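Standup notes
- DV: blocked on the single-chain target, sequence here:
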Amino acid sequence: MIIGIDDTDSNDGMCTTYLGALLLDELQAYGTLETLPLLIRLNPTIPYKTRGNAAVALKIRTDCPEKVTAHVVSRIEELAHMECEKTNPGVVFIPENDYDRLKPVLGNFFEKAVKDVIEIQEAKTLISELGIPSKGFKNGRGLIGSLAACGAMLNLEAWDHTFEYLAYRQKESWGTPREVEKESFFEADRKTYPGTWDTVDLKSRQVVCVPHSGDPVLFGIRGENPAIVAEAASLIRAEPIERFAVYRTNQGTDMHLLSVTSFAEIQDMHSYRLEGTVQAIPRTITGGHVIFPIRDEEGNEIDCAAFEPTKNFRLLIRKLRPGDKVELSGSVSSRTLNIEKIEIKTLTPLYKEENPICPNCGKHMKSSGRAQGFRCKKCGTHAVSKITCEIKRDLVAGLYEVPPCARRHLAKPLVREQKSNVNIFPAR
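- DV (later): unblocked, structure below
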């Protein structure tokens, strides 16, 4: 059977992946886990998410499904932060004899949950119509992610994978400052990058894979395969851990991005890949955010933003000028695209007027007075007017990304890009 679980955490603590890791060990008393567990990130723009908007799925072969179901439900009741208004757990159980029947419909549901907005009733209706065993707690919003995670497990061949090694703290340490040796994370990065990424941010000297909330996670190493994330984790020096789990994930895949033919189709709470032309010099607003508009071929415009947490990425954005052709990736809120990546496709030429150059000595001439042209004092040569020169742009066409400290879970890091004939500039 496949088990999907979502929404057991809160802003203050707990973590659905921790429950998944706990069940990985405990359910072995009832059967055999058949594959790596899944950690699925859903639409990152959903306003009622708790923290990372993640669901998990486990696949187990068992002769006692009733005992498995009872155990999972009891663990959710025990560990989920039910007292939090935003915590509304859900769990779904897919029997093996239903795999083929449910694979296409839940595969579509999974993709929709990552890219679109799904209401609770839609998930409940689907469960009722298809006769899927499930249990919702409180308003049951977690049933959305639970169904999506099951759809992902049923369709492993249909989506891009990365992996994350998650280490969990001993329970008595929850809510206290994490004890980690910062330099060991930089060592792990040096030895495993680019097979791993987003462990550290070199420019800001930050460790970015250690959370700061009260949840059970000590650190999470993301990478291309289970072996490389385990190698990186083995180099970390930190407080003792209770347990760990390696999850297969859709993190770092750009799975959330939609394509549109017209900016008129853009909706809030969705993520896009947009191509357009810069319409104005980027401006810095209160808070340090950098904003500029782009226009599509139909004349529709949308504002794009490099927000303050993107740090030095804003220096790049400030170099854009009207006429530059760009492709942007990011999520839309309040009709503004929060930039995750930018491909600068072409740079518009910029020009300035300057005094003419003497053909003999190569130096700029001086003005001879109002309406009297220009003269080289050394050579005596004359010219009638100023000349127009192209300004060298302090910018190179290519693909750029926000730094690791500002990267969203689903955004594909440039070390994973395989574009040909494009300059790629990974943020490190």
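- Follow-up: Residues 257-347+393-425 form a domain with the OB fold (Dihydrolipoamide Acetyltransferase, E2P) fold (CATH 2.40.50.1010).
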